[in-house]
Design a protein that fits this description.
UDP-N-acetylmuramoyl-L-alanine:D-glutamate ligase, alpha/beta
């Protein structure tokens, strides 16, 4: 389709009953999540004074909270929506890894078949210090190097085994070394051969290697970087959306646009979905919720417009919370209350 001639299609209107029924159909679906596992650590406190050692705030810490991040948060979101999820990724051999596995178990995410241990690297840990509900500092402990060959071979073996019975596969690429060109060269043809729908939350360095995916969900900055042209106007966005879809031979490109909602580009045209957020408190992890909802909806054989409407509602729920969060199936269904009834 010529992007300059493409007219925007109206966002389809679905009834509450139809979408609530779709959410109900998430139960029992099996979604495999492959990607970079992260542990998010939050230190909450009060900024009481300026340090005498340097011109920085001193925060008196009141409490600590650990949450799943990266692909682990994506898997947690899939599970919260009612589907069964298997997480494939890598952890180090350290305390953070033990915390991740404990949280995965608490949240009902199956990890033992898919998680490999790499003693040569640390588990990715992001520590955020918050004072008076505002983030004042983030400290990252991580390795961005690709997995060693032996660990990569074991990871692919586990990923391939996890594909048996999968209704959809989701790739969550945070650039921490799990998602590599070699992994994609094995994975994407295998998904096509098996007819398994795929959803990808990309990183810029691998963007053009995601050829043939069912849907890819970059944010506007990632999409413009991949396209090689800044999106200054709506016309630029439309050109880039269709151009990336053609370049990737993808089923669809979904560009998330923060407070401006999201834009879907398919063979039929492009559709804009305005944001459903009533209150934006923290956008951390909102992309995880979007891709998790999209993949789970595809696993339940929803159409892409249905998936986008549900993802929009789910993202609206999590941005009203501080830090990474997950929308449950019940919360998602309740958020549909303002839609027309059938």
């Amino acid at each position: 389709m010529n992007p300059t001639a493409a007219a925007a299609m109206k966002a389809p209107r679905f009834t509450r009953e139809a979408l609530a029924g779709r959410v109900d159909s998430f139960r029992g679906r099996r979604v495999v999540v492959i990607g970079d596992v992260i542990l998010d650590r939050y230190l909450w406190g009060r900024a009481t004074r300026v340090s005498p050692e340097a011109p920085v705030l001193v925060v008196d810490i009141d409490r600590e909270e650990l949450r799943l991040g990266g692909a682990a948060n994506v898997a947690q979101n899939v599970r919260a929506l009612g589907a069964h999820t298997v997480l494939v990724g890598a952890l180090g051999d350290d305390g953070a890894a033990a915390d991740v596995e404990r949280l995965l178990g608490t949240n009902g995410v199956e990890s033992s078949p898919g998680i490999v241990r790499d003693r040569s690297r640390r588990t990715t840990l992001k520590t955020r210090i918050l004072a008076h509900h505002q983030q004042v500092l983030r400290a990252d402990e991580e390795s961005r190097e690709p997995l060693p060959a032996a660990v990569h071979a074991e990871l692919w073996k586990r990923a391939e085994s996890a594909l048996d019975g999968a209704d959809a596969v989701l790739v969550s690429d945070y650039g921490k070394g799990v998602v590599t060109p070699e992994l994609l060269e094995h994975l994407l043809p295998e998904l096509e051969r098996r007819g398994i729908p795929s959803a990808v939350d990309p990183k810029e360095e691998h963007f053009l290697r995601y050829r043939g995916v069912s849907v890819i969900t970059p944010n506007a900055a990632e999409a413009s970087e991949a396209w090689g042209k800044r999106f200054r106007t709506e016309a630029d966005l439309i050109e880039g959306g269709f151009g990336l879809r053609d370049r990737l031979k993808a089923g669809a490109v979904l560009i998330t646009r923060g407070e401006e909602g999201m834009s879907l580009f398919t063979a039929e045209g492009h559709t804009h979905f305005p944001t459903r957020a009533r209150r934006v408190y923290d956008v951390t992890g909102a992309g995880d919720t979007v891709i998790a909802t999209i993949a789970t909806a595809l696993a339940a054989r929803a159409t892409l417009p249905e998936a986008c409407v549900l993802a929009n509602h789910a993202a609206g729920l999590v941005v009203a919370q501080l830090g990474t969060a997950a929308a449950t199936a019940a919360e998602l269904t309740a958020s549909l209350e303002d839609l027309p009834r059938g």
